[in-house]
User: Fold this.
Amino acid sequence: MDTALAVGRLLLVAIFIFSGVGKFTDVAGTAAYIAGKGLPMPEILAVAAGAVEVIFGLMVAVGWQTRFAAVVLLLFTAAAGYLFHDFWKLPAGPEQINQMAHAWKNLSIVGGLLVLAVAGPGRFSLDGRARG
Assistant:
């Protein structure tokens, strides 16, 4: 079980780490996407989103403060799904289906993060090491 939790943690947060790095490498593009949704301070939000994804993704990956980091990413992912994959506002068609798929992906990730927040990181983690 501990090995599965360690591998699962890595697989679950890989998307956050890569996405966060991508936000840092294209802050202007990310800010434009955020601005397109009508949110304020898009440049600041772009950098903050990248920081949340990288920092808390790495925390989960190494298993440090795992439950807390999983909850932060859970809330971040739920908010991102609601704000950026709002398929219910789109007319029926391919883009609505695409955004619905992204919304369900986010919901699935939220489920994985909830399981991790409840189960904990397992023995092969910094948290597990601290517990002995």
About this structure: The chain has a mean pLDDT of 95. DSSP finds six helices and no strands in the chain.
